[in-house]
Batch of 4 targets.
Target 1
Amino acid sequence: MVKATRGTLVKCDASIKAMLLDIDSKNGNDFIIEDLDEEHILVKETKIAQLKQRLQSMMKERLKEPESSESEA
Amino acid sequence: MSASSSQALDYLELLPRQTHTKLYEQPSTVLAIFRCMLPHIAKTIVMGMLYMPTPFAAVDLEAWFRPDGKKEREKALAVLEQLHIVASQQDDKRQLSYTLYKGFARSLRQALEGSGTHRSFGVPSSIPDPNRVTIPFLEEYARSQWENILFFMVGSTVGLANANQLGNAVGEGTKALLKAGDFIRISNGRVSITRAGFTFVLQETNAQVWSLLIVYLKHAPQLGMSETDVLSFLFMLGSLELGQDYTTSTLSPTQLQMLEDLSAFGIVYRSSKDARTFYPTRLAVTLTSDTGALSTSDPLKSSPVGSSRPNANKGFIIVETNYRLYAYTSSLLQIAVLSLFTKLTTRFPNLVSGKLTKESTTRAVKLGISSTQIVAYLTAHAHPQMQKTQPFLPPTVTDQIRLWEYEGERVETTTGFLMKEFNSETEYRDVLSYAESLGVLQWKNDSKRLFFVDRVEQISLYLQKKKSRV
Amino acid sequence: MNAIDGTDRQVRTEEGPPPSLLAVVLDTNPHAWAHLSTTLPFSSCIAALLIFINAHLASGNGNEVAVIASHTHRAEWLYPTPHTTNSPLHSYSTDTTEDGTNGVAQRDPKIPENPNKYRPFATVEQCLLSNFSSLLNRTSETHLAATPTTLIGGALSLALAYIAKSVLRHSPVDTGLENPLSALADSESSHATRVPLTSRILIVSVSGDLANQYIPVMNSIFAAQRKRIPIDILKLAGDTVLLQQASDATGGVYMKPEQPEGLLQYLMMGFLPDATARRALVMPGAGGVDFRAACFCHRKVVDIGFVCSVCLSIFCEPNLPNNLCLTCSSYLSLRAAQTATPALVQRVKKKRKKVGAGPATPGASTPAGSSTPVHR
């Protein structure tokens, strides 16, 4: 029997996916419904904003932004 | 079908059958839905069936289409069934055939023939109006009312000093509606625009009008109005003549109530609150047509080019490959919108100049504006000189705007449904190809027999039908 | 990867089909309609045609229509009403007063306000009916007695000219840089309204024999073919190979309904789909087209005939009076061709026996009067 599961499809790089899986496992698997393939996961629709926010803060922590070299003319 | 009417179509598709049936009682509504909601092939099918005395057998319908037109045929039929325009049925010999719903067919015929006594195309006022207004006045009225609304939304975000005064020009009802549609948030008397609001502001005028009206429709039941009444009135407005005054005496109480709200938006004009006539503005008459090109002015005369939309489509932006931006405008609204994603530096009486920078773009992205919206806005308002090249914008600039956005946002999300647990490969293939033909397929994995769609209604309908047929 | 956030459904820019211009050439030949009056009176044909036109206008927001009557003595505009024919004197005398608003002022002011009718539909209907009745009023008995046929060639040319004009009007902003001033003028216009136009011609024909207009009609067909304008033919009565070939050469639809009473259904099903829709549909009329030409002298359909080298008129026998072509009156001696034919059959390769028979003859006959036996 065919089943339809409501959710949000998240498409991202493998590296970002690893981070998302990490967030998920640290929060009691509250976000991800299904791991689809290397670049796609299915996330609970209600949790997507929260997940994005956590990803942002995690990126800020881990990635050092290069100094913005904005040359104004 | 265009971008602006497609959101109206999305809304219409989700209405229940009873509402559709009631809507289709008005020939003007049926004609408007036919004209601007249906995909092109669907129109062809409906017209082919309209004067057909017998049901249209499915095999004949299939034979009518070329093999490579299968995708378009299925899509058209799905929309038609969803809107309850076409019904499929099986006869005793299990032969599938299609018929038009009676109400729809009758109304469409009346609209084409001009028969019946439904008076749904607006009753012009018989008494000459002493304060008759001219078309330029109506254009100006619509433009100023609509820009006030947009400016009210954008104004405070970009920090213009007189934003609060401009808010006064916008009625309380409109403000409440913008809030209800989640276009703005008001906290401590300060107006801040939301992500949906940005999407709204960056759309072209016609799409903006529909977005606002759909919010209006969704909230109509709370105000004690019937959805059908509201919708048919809107569709009727779309078939009126600009510059003609129409009588209010044939309108229902709901529609009279609507007139007040609509005049606040600038969609209709009334000389006073209790005037017995109303004038549709350009915003109203283009509701059901994208260009307003179906003009009644004599086509042998020059084309209606100059008289198109009030403020949209006048290109004024020049973008250079070095990210510099020049906008020939003195409109505060346009400057405000530009300043959402541009670093503006200089302002002259008829020109502002600035630069698209990484900073300004990421700030816009943080506010919830997507790169697609920025590019779409710049393209839609590209100066005619820019329009001589294809694409209008320098590709380096559009690519860089996208790249800047991806730096901030690393994931792409789509809301929808994951379809899984197919019994067999053939079933999977069948449903997958149907989803593909509807254009709702987002992602698939053949080995796991999974796929993801952003709309599920038509697919579940298809699955049900399949089940009943087996 | 265009949208990083899928919440913006509205931004999808799905362009609708281009607007389509339908030019209807209505054969109003009273002789032919009189024959049809028992099965399909003219009034019901007009009614069906109006519904069809409305359906066409409703099928696309930018759709336009033009209707031309091909009458016995003249081809006449039914819609839109040309300005000049209204009354040249009138526009001359009031030139100063309604200079700018000429187009609006000349629009028929008597369009009745009918709340049961969509206004653009009412405009077309009113225009068409009033122009047609004035055409009928101007038709005298002498006109009718003069000829039993209809001026399809003139009407076709009018339609083609109108289409050419409309296409120009709709063409996208000129990318050429010939004239910088025109570019400046363009800055006022909007690009959205200038999308290319697709056009087609529909001929509703009732008259039988059109061979006397072979040249103008053929020229129109070639023009349409070149401009890629399909010519659709709805043949309610009579039969002409000429129109069949018109639709075949231009990729149009040819239909000869067995029951003219069902005109509206034929129109809706067969002729309403525009170029965009036709790409997905199987259109009727691809079946056996009679490529044979009718001879101009006796109007018999011929397998092998003689062709005038100047105007390509076809004759079934070589005995022309005074050796002059009946159509273009140029000198044409066919006798030489006739005698030459048997000798040549053996010389040409088997495959091309019939087709290639003629062209080898010029040396045998006089240069001006050479002719080509033809097989089509």
Target 2
Amino acid sequence: MQWEIVIGLEVHTQLSTRSKIFSGASTAYGAPPNTQACVIDLALPGVLPVLNKGAVERAIKLGLSVGAKINSPSIFARKNYFYPDLPKGYQISQYELPVVQGGSIQIQVDGVEKNIRLTRAHLEEDAGKSLHEDFHGMSGIDLNRAGTPLLEIVSEPDMRSSAEAVAYAKTLHALVRWIGICDGNMQEGSFRCDANVSVRPRGMEKLGTRCEIKNLNSFRFLEKAIDFEARRQIEILEDGGTIRQETRLYDANKDETRTMRTKEDANDYRYFPDPDLLPLEIPQHWIDRIKHTLPELPQVRRDRYVSEFALSAYDASALTSSRETADYFEATVTQLPAQAKLCANWIMGEISGQLNKEGIEIAACPINPEQLAALLARISDGTISGKAAKTVFESMWNGELDKNVDAIIAAKGLKQISDDSAIEKLVDQVLAANAQQVADYRNGKEKAFNSLIGQIMKATQGKANPAQVNAMLKKKLAE
Amino acid sequence: MTLTVNDVKRIADLAYIEINESEAKETLIQLSGIFNLIETMQAVDASTVEPMSHAQSVVQRLREDEVTETDQRELCQSIAPQVEAGLYLVPQVIE
């Protein structure tokens, strides 16, 4: 039987506010335990939550970026469950009337565009952290993270493969960083995915029973967990079994998912509106003001790069993978408007390769867009070859000669020989010294041609303009 | 809706409340009374009434996103039964 995999994702993004969602404690990562947990985060009696405007603003930004409806009023609810790192005994979240409702995100898989609908995005507070080791049979609780603002972004079950799920997660990850609402740091847990996975016979309308895989904190784990889970469900169904609705955990070491709790053991969260928080009104003028502060969105820029610079959809996507990369590209191409493709190639090739190698972000790139443009200008005006440009690039990267392109070219003697008479003289010399190969070529041995080119390039240490050498050699051999 | 003693025990279990047989029976009577009350209220046609999320018709006041709290760990932990290495210690719970 042909099976179809159906995936929906819930993504928890940690919002980049300075203070917590309901208290004035700091959200900075990595502070000593409980030094950023104030009386509100500890849920001491008599304290009241006051909503952080910055958190609401970030939720609205996301809503506007995905074409969603912004609900006003929007309501906060208590989600009740018992766990020691949740001191109130409930998490303040949203149930009915979340801030963001609907919307969609465009993804690309193997060059094919697909629209993934969003169900909703709601604000909530994060819980603290439990440490189970080394406390003589007790658990240690750190409440620094308690009350950190989260935006949970829920998709419709619109994805049909792990590749689509990863593409969606990556697009969303790029978007939240692009609009500046989340730092996207997956190691620090700022962007965590839960995947709802089910399978059904291809062509069937009705959804299969789903399992939820919790806390996938890398794109690779997301992909592997979905692939494993889909295989597991298909095997059960093909053996005549049924799927039990449950929450599962992915074990990266064993590359498998296993039961965390079944539906029967699931908490009834007993959601109800939080009487400590009043309905949140979001006036239109506030939404309009936020709309004006939004940067040009990645999708829009991508389309513009295709139409304005005639780049391929693939190049345009790669350049808009982050706002910093896109800004770097634009700053470069402004200096060299006719050479967009050359700029794109170098940014995605040399620059990105070197950044990856050294593990730094493009914002910290030692070569700025003006300097890169100066280098590329020397390729396009024929002063240096592409190969020599790589040598110059290396010198610039290492900060030689104040990263001055022309000074480096001069100091290293990399200027390309493009003078026709000089090239003719070179070709004549090489032909005279290699009579045997010339004879071979004329007798039909094509390989001899490349060997002659090699000799000429070697004689000039690679500085001769390859296109001119090629043309000149052909002309001479035809004589 | 008719509640059974088993339902009461399950609710108690979910709520982490320890309950014995006679308490369960007593609770069943009380809970059933509450359910009857709810049934009476559900007979009212409320389809045209907008659900109320708060008793007062005022809106949420917002805070500027600023850090206003300083580190009060020592003070807060002075009333905690057990602390170690800056952490609050609690009986071990592993989900």
Target 3
Amino acid sequence: MQTAPMPDADEPRDNATFAAVLNALARPGTVHEMPEPGLLPVALALVDRECRVFADEAALSGALARSGASVVPPDLADHLFLSLGTESAMAQLLRAPVGSQLYPDQGATVVAPARFGDGPAVRLAGPGIRDTATLSLGELHADVWRVRAGLCRYPLGIEMIFVDGTRLVALPRSTTVTEG
Amino acid sequence: MSLATLTRPWQAFSYGFLDASAKREMRRKMIKAVAVPGCQMPYASREVPIARGWGTGGLQATLTLVSPGAVVKVIDQGADDSVNAASNRRFLTRVSGARATLDTLEATLIQSRHRVPEERLRADQVLILQVPNPEPLRGVEPNMSRARQMHADADYGRLWLTLYEQIVRSGRVMQGASYPAMVNGRHVMTPSPIPRWDLPKLNMAEHLTILSAGREKRIFAVPPHTRVDPLVFDDVPYRVEDHAQLTCHRSGLTGFFMNEIPQDDGTARHEVSDSHLGVKAIDAAEIGETWYKGGEMQP
């Protein structure tokens, strides 16, 4: 009987990060723990030379390029790493691909930093949520939910993954966000 | 960066068999599958060391999710001990170091061919269904491109017609396994050939279900708390198989999905399809909360 192959250093981190992302998307609004903090571990679990990425931060952009992904403008990217606090980030978010009725999978995945438990609370409803859930995220532009609603015309839309240190929350396109 | 940091100690194959790039592709597609429940997402479907059609889709999903701390259960038509289930289970544990179990309650990853366990799945469990034919429209539209367009248009008229024709011809819906179901009110999926008995278990469930077709290179998902509505006419209610009154001749269990065992004298005996549920009953071990009680699906 052979023993199981040893995981390399990246494998447990990528595996646990993806488990957090998948659980967060399957249960929108719930907080999940990743082994390492920041946007980069999420990127490393998902992105490689088959991807086109955009990041508004030069350091992250460099790290993404080293994964083999092509760094492209936001309207061509399948993964976007944005700080959604500014007017210019809103403009970039608006350009994110949303897929098509034929290929909804071509909608982008947007990864953004946020401060959890801060900022105005929004109500969430949709698949993965038993009744309704609430979510409050700080460091986001006031228009972010309006822009997201404009992009997410189900089954078209974007997936949003918010990261606060090692904690992570995700909103798939199927989630309806109600403000106020 | 130096050559040393890029070089890894030699191993016959990667952890979990799939290489890092294959796993990332699976992850990206699983994310999209969960985001658009019931919508078939194309994926590359790498080679795994079993023939396509024997659970390669399920294996790739399980191999992507598995970690040394995972507990894996593999089911084939309800049984843990068929050749296909045993081989897949042995392969999974060998390449991942994960522990194998036969007990539904213990497992964290449950890969299944054509059955959903009778014991209720929890939020911390993932069900991975092996799918031979992911396209519910194949019977009415063999052209994949046109079928994709029909999904885009939510054009499911011909599926309704199929069900209508069955009722006209036979007086009832004849569709047994793979009963078409509307997911999240938008995409019709085939739930893989699980019996009608099992389809209500996916509706508003606690667990995540991933359905993966390796040969056909399509993956789709049903997240927890998602509506899965079988296609039914208002005046012809959904009916599961008439197994509510059947008793297993080995374990004495009543009110679960049964396998029919033909006897030499022309009669038939029944034995419970979820093999480990039967084993638990024989051992008088504790059986978890079940979906069906007294042969009735519980909300």
Target 4
Amino acid sequence: MAVYKRGYQRYEGTRTTAWERLMVLPRYSWSRLITQRLVIAVLMMSAFWPLLCAIFIYIANHGELLAGFGQGFQRFLAVDGNFFRVFMSVQSVFAIALAAMTGPGLIAPDLANNALPLYFSRPMSRWEYVLARLMVLGGMLSAVTWIPGLLIYGMQVGMAGSDWFSKYWNLGLAVFVGFLMLVLLTSLVALASSAWVKWRVVAGALVLGFFFVLAGAAQMMNAIFRDKAGSLLNPIYLLERLWMSMMGIDSPSESEPGLVQCVFALLGLCGLMLLVLERKLRPVEVVK
Amino acid sequence: MNLWAKQVLTIARLEVRKAFLSKRGLWVYVLALFPAVIFLVHGFDVKLKRQRWSSQITDHALLEGVQAGETASDVRMRLGPPLMDREFGRRRRGEDGERLEEERYRHLRYFDGQRRYDFHFTNGVLKEKFEQPLATLEENSQVFAGVFQYFYLRLAVFFGCLGIFMNLFRGEMLDKTLHFWFLAPVRREVLLVGKYGAGLVAAAVIFGAGTIVTFLAMLWGLDPADVQAYWQSAGPGHLFWYTVATVLGCVGYGSVFLAAGLLMRNPIIPAVVILFWEAINGFLPAVLQKLSVLYYLQSLCPLPPPVDKEVPAVMRVLLAPAEPAPAALAILGLLGVTVLVLWVASRAVRRLEVNYATD
């Protein structure tokens, strides 16, 4: 007679779909992040600028309020590509700050506590795990980027009418696609930093360092070489060139890198981050 | 030597080795030496260009005589074959958003032995003429002033100190080793001073040396006679004040980040706030500008940084740097702030409880 006997039966119940399984991670992460006071504070702060822009649009579209002002002031109130570029630049600062605060907590604790085998022993691949984490950040960052961006654009279209829309239809697309690119890059940087250093606090510093130190290093190289090729190292510059090009306001000087080079540099940065994630996210690690 | 001083030295000796040689801190060296590497590459590039272009020198008077409106073929015929002849077309968008006809651009480059001349033609007619010395001491000093104040102080020293000083206590928390220090028969204030001393020595040596190497690299590739004259006049003074500003930057930022690491579980928040405060420093009223580390460090710099030509006019109007503080006041002010911040940190470290679970 066996001293230990255990039988198994295959699970025959209803299976969840791949999409539902994928959404488990974002669902729990969002509910955890939304309870953090700091995240709420940054989200609230990031709403101020769109609010100011909405007021600007309201004033710009009410000619009767501007009757007493000169031509120069009325030109200042034009809602065009430059307006949306400034809007996007300001919001991108909040997006980077938010990514630096929320991103490092997504992967680093799993690595530090050896939790990856628990994830990967379930029906979830490494890339699904990365995608799920990207969705967490993408969702958070969308709230400060393309969602307010499209609301502002929609407000302007509603107030200015079809003439303005037919002239500036590309701005809405530029806001959406440009912000998506920003969300993708900042999310990948935050996740890669989180996977690289394993510690939340250090990873947060690394995210800030990536954007600010690279921007500074690019400016420094431009100053020393009296050239603009160093700008290819600056992720913020690359994104701004892409935005401006989509908005039709890109007028680079002769020495500045071309748009194609900027796009390739952006893709290169994204590829580098994916490579870091590929190297660091292993369910089993052999320590020699 | 009394007991506390001995304990401070022992702690500093143990920590300083970790600060200099830890694998986790190697990026600080990269940050400190990166400008030096770029200046060296530039110096090499200048030497190489001078050597290559010297075989094709054009008369200075002929180059000066070229006027706007001349055609490319006329200029080429008069000056001879250029160093560079590049031609390309570009479609430009008009103000109303409609595409315009393609325009042809042509760039010709010449060298007179000291300066390079760039002629930019649009549709065959000279529109712009640029004249630039290959590299001069005055120009390089201006570039160094900009690199030092915009990159080195604001970013390299800032993030370097963030990494070094945050690691002193928060790093021990992450490594789950802080309790070993707390179990030793040593006052926490003594531990704080010992760790701060170690961090300061590491940061000051790494970034101070980085400043000196970058300064020397800036001079490399320039005319030796100019460099010698510079060393006999303002050079040593400039190098001294840049190094003092770097070391005081480490003193100031170091104390702030050490305190931040003790007072807050996530020191990134104060780091973001300080980074933002320092970034908008130039736009603030004079009184508020004095409430930053950067104001005192900039007061010590021998040359003001150049203002970027691409900065919009509105921003230039808003940019109002406060009158620099006298050197003695700047040094005393920074040291005073550091003592105050360390006192706050010493109060915090007395109340610190080890809680590894949260990190």
